[in-house]
Fold this protein.
Amino acid sequence: MPLWPQLCVLYWHEPGAGSLTQLVMKTLQFKTNINCGGCIKAVTPALNQQAGAGNWQVDTANPDKILTVNSDQLTSEQVVQAVENAGFKIQAA
């Protein structure tokens, strides 16, 4: 599994628009110390506020406890700040 930012580009046509609209979704991944259900519960409010519910997940089975965030607007720095403010360690994967 690659641990670098990935891009997903979505295109759609809006009625009345002359061209296609483009939305670029980034997949950001981080190593964390979020390692159990209690940790996930503790970080959920911060990540839901930043990324939105359903736009992030933590693979606690992975030795590096990989946090994956999908967003079209968030930066890595915003994710790091949210997780650190919730009391956890995080670094780019």
